[in-house]
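Minutes, methods subgroup
Present: GH (chair), OT, SY

1. OT presented the first of two proteins processed in the latest run. Sequence and structure tokens recorded below as shown on screen.
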Amino acid sequence: MKIKKLFISIIGGILLIIGIIMIIVPGPAYLIIPAGLGILGTEYIWARRMHDKFKNGLQKFLKLKKLKR
């Protein structure tokens, strides 16, 4: 189980770091950061909470955008 947690931490952490870098340089940070948080969220509560906040915010944004049409 420790190997699984280590693997998830490395992969999720790498994606999260790449996503944060993509905020500065061109790239799809809005896709990579939630993916990293989703992977980390399988093992860490803080990442799950951040992922849920992002998901709820995205749903609200899409709902507002749909209403403006």
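2. SY then presented the second protein from the same run.
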Amino acid sequence: MTKLVDTILDFAIIVGVSLILFYGLTFLGAPLWLSLICVAIWGGFTGYKPKIVRKPFKFLYKDDQEK
């Protein structure tokens, strides 16, 4: 069950940061193509190695704190 929760948490963090990145760049006046490329790079990189996302958000993962 913990693995499922970790996967859902990874997905939520990746999507949340993607939305913040997209709206932040759009708000700052970046062209749409640049915003979409940045979101695609972020999604591709974190989708390939989701453990990278866990480092700054390790307080959300119970197993990592106990070790």
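Chair's summary of item 2: The chain is about 80% helix and 0% strand.
Next meeting: continue with the remaining queue.
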